[in-house]
Amino acid sequence: MTYDPACANPLVGNPLETRSDMQHALLDLFDPLLPYFSKGNARVRLDAAAAHFDRAAADLEGFARPLWGLAPFAAGGGDFPHWRRYAEGIANGTDPSHPEFWGNVGNRDQRMVELAALGFALALIPEKLWDPQSGRARDNLVTYLLQARKFDYAENNWKFFRILVDIALDRLGVEFDRSLTDAYLSELDGFYIADGWYRDGNVRRVDHYIPFAMHFYGLIYSRLVEDDHAKRYRERALAFAEDFRHWFAEDGATVPFGRSLTYRFACAGFWSALAFADLEALPWGEIKGLCLRHLRWWADKPITHRDGVLSVGYGYPNLLMSENYNSAGSPYWAFKAFLPLAASKDHPFWTSRESSPRPSSDPVALSHPGMVMMPARGDVVALSSGQENRQMRFGSEKYAKFAYSARYGFSVESDERAFGGGAFDSMLAFSDDGIHYRVREANEEARLVGNVLFSRWSPWPDVTVETWLLPGSPWHLRVHRITTPRPLETAEGGFAITRRDFEADTLSAQTGWAYAIGKQDFSGIRDLCSTVTRQGLAQKAPPNTNLITAKTLVPQLRGTIPAGETILRCAVLAVRDISAVSGDWDVPPAVPEIAELRGLAEQGVRVSAMQAPGRMP
Predict the structure, then answer these.
(1) DSSP, residue by residue, 322-352
(2) Name one Pfam family in it (predicted).
(3) Is residue 288 located within the same domain as residue 379?
(4) Is 170 exposed, middle or buried (0-12, 13-18, 19+ CB in 10 A)?
(5) Element housing 463 (H / E)
(6) For residue 141, what pLDDT is reported?
(7) Distance between start and end Cα atoms, the chain
(8) Is residue 357 part of a domain?
(9) According to the model, what pLDDT value does residue 4 have?
(10) What interhelical angle do 269-277 and 216-224 show, nearest 10?
(11) Sign of the Cα pseudo-torsion (249, 252, 256, 259, in order)
(12) pLDDT-derived band of residue 482, with 50, 70 and 90 as boundaries?
């Protein structure tokens, strides 16, 4: 008997095509949480793993995050039988004398994050959560919300959390200091770049938090409040939609990039929020297709534990790729995808026929995040330069690789002292002792000219690397100009593909190239006229390093560069087509001369994420 962990996924077998399908999906995903509600219903504790915040906040996270889906479900007329639990849990969680009290809020406290979901639900469905409360319970709840909003929130999307609480307080008729609301609305505008793009704070970071946080909350605001801010949020979403659609592949997968990917189908939250806000940023059939195809992509993935509870991880349970702030309840931010359930059954999101993505064979340059989105036979590859995240675990892998794929994801490293065994997919690694290694962590400069990305970076203060990334679908090209005062060992990887048991895959590596052929996929890397010789290697990457599949193969080029200047050139190919070895593999695209590339770098525009944060005029 073969054990299929995907069978525990509550989405298995759900066609996810209609409003009813999405309603069933929501309830099926929620039901496994019921055994984990505390006696007083204020806490949901799913396992013993910890986040950096206290256990009470983690329990609140498990309690509150499902509200992102449950509240719109109820607002749209859905029948959820457990509102009594939530009403009781809110009363007990905000009662300082109750043993299940959530704890007092402090500066930049995780409770602030979860109170945003509670504020949203109170604003949307007060009849379920506010009306049933006694006078004392209402007083406790209001006191708790007012106390929380006095503290400083993190300098990023968190500023929306107090605004969502303020919307709830306003709708409940509670008096509070609205100047704090206005201050945060103004500060959020300071994160705006242009053309629909934000930063997630005053950092070189433009990731999925832009659609599933900045725009998501802005669109909720635009439905619940009528003012100039609401108008701006809608205008920005209209501009953003045209760019963001290029992050999604034909099968619904999105390009995994950045932090917090354990939130999984929250990546469809932007499309869901358009339906909630009744904003036709693209034709409704396209919006519906982008949202539902993404949900369907997750339906056969082993993303839950055996009891059906969503796991920390991405394509499978995986604590290695998680953030320090991920508790067992964190993945339920995925419920943001269920916002369309607030829309009636006759809303055009539901009545429109789902349409396929508009075909695109040409790469699309996105100067604000510093990416070139390259269609590649059903996949989408994002060539990337210009971002950094040195504050969080695996920031280099999550932000600074050369390429990210909707189909092949990316890998994190499991041992910083294992240069010989590293995955290094879509990275160039250097070692000066054969044990430790350095990769690109940040860029000193990043530019975009046409569809070519340029960056300058330093793995050590005395080593400089200039990198050019060029699309040539289904290939992409990389050129590196390296200046070093000492010899260095190097390893450069292509894309990671699934590795099968019993050595069933085909691996081939010689001087100048390497490839791997799996059950469905081909992945290869070819050296192109580098000034040193590199040896091919079909690397069996450490397990549980890739986000999408637990065992992988990564074709690599390895070699030693001398002191002085070295030019490395390669072409990278990965396709869902195992016949590629007798087709595309034999005809890689030509690479421009280094002089031509250096001229392009001088012409290019600076990547917005590299520029100093500005404020709205």
Answers:
(1) --TT--TTGGGGGGGGGGGGGS-TTSHHHHS
(2) DUF2264_C
(3) no
(4) middle
(5) strand 463-472
(6) 98
(7) 65
(8) no
(9) 66
(10) 10
(11) positive
(12) very high
* pLDDT, tens digit (0-9, with 9 covering 90-100), for 369-389: 999 999 999 999 999 998 888
Distance separating alpha carbons of residues 120 and 182, to the nearest angstrom: 18
What three-state secondary structure class fits 603?
helix
- Please, how many CA atoms are within 13 Å of residue 374, restricted to the half-sphere of its CB? 28
pLDDT 10s digits, 146-195:
999 999 999 999 999 999 999 999 999 999 999 999 999 999 999 999 99
Task: Write down the pLDDT at residue 607.
Answer: 85
Q: Is the pLDDT of residue 361 over 90?
A: no
Mean pLDDT, range 256-266, rounded to an integer: 98
In this structure, is residue 272 part of a structural domain?
yes
The residue behind tokens 């041992």 is: 415
The answer to whether the beta carbons of residues 161 and 184 sit under 8 Å apart is no
| Distance in angstroms (rounded) separating the CA atoms of residues 496 and 383 | 15
Rounded to an integer, what distance in angstroms lies between the CA atom of residue 259 and that of residue 314? 11
Cα–Cα distance measured from residue 66 to residue 103, given in angstroms and rounded to the nearest whole number:
20
Rounded to the nearest 10 degrees, what angle do helices 110-124 and 55-64 cross at? 30
Residue 250 CA to residue 377 CA, distance in Å, equals 9
| DSSP structure class, residue 214 | I
Task: Tell me the H-state helices in 80-177.
Answer: 83-93, 110-124, 126-129, 135-148, 159-171
Q: Which residue range forms the structural domain that includes residue 420?
A: 364-610
Pair 126, 171: CB distance under 8 Å: yes
DSSP H or E segment with residue 221: helix 216-224
* pLDDT at residue 608, rounded to an integer: 80
How far, in Å, are 220, 438, 497 from residue 538 at the CA level?
48, 21, 11
Q: What is the DSSP letter of 211?
A: I
In a domain, 168, yes or no: yes
pLDDT value of position 286: 97
Helix (H, G, I), strand (E, B) or coil at 110: helix
Last residue of a domain, one of 351, 373, 388: 351
**Count of domains observed in the chain:** 2
Sign of CA dihedral 111, 115, 116, 117: positive
Domain contains 356? no
Structure-block tokens of residue 183: 């201050």
